[in-house]
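Subject: mismatched residue count in predicted assembly?

I count 79 residues in my input, but I want to confirm that the predicted structure covers every chain. Input:
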Amino acid sequence: MDKGKGQAGSTARLAKHIEKDERYKLCPSCGNFADFNSNEIYCILCGTRLLDACPECRSPIYYPTAKFCPACGEKYNRQ
Ligand SMILES: [Zn+2]
Ligand SMILES: [Zn+2]
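Triage response: the counts match. Full output below for your records.
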């Protein structure tokens, strides 16, 4: 029995580039953050309304620890 007929099954897994879809909401007051898809509207720590985008250019917030908008340089914490 010759079973040497291996198909060239090169399952080259295309490493699909995961789109950076993670977004966050930031508290402009105390720096707390929440997942963008959470239904939190206000900061659970200080009650300030969370930013779901840059207040200046409306760029999405991709970094939960960001203090400034990477697109326009606007400070998120505008008091
Ligand atoms: Zn807060
Ligand atoms: Zn901005």
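The radius of gyration is 22 Å. Marking this ticket as 'not a bug'.
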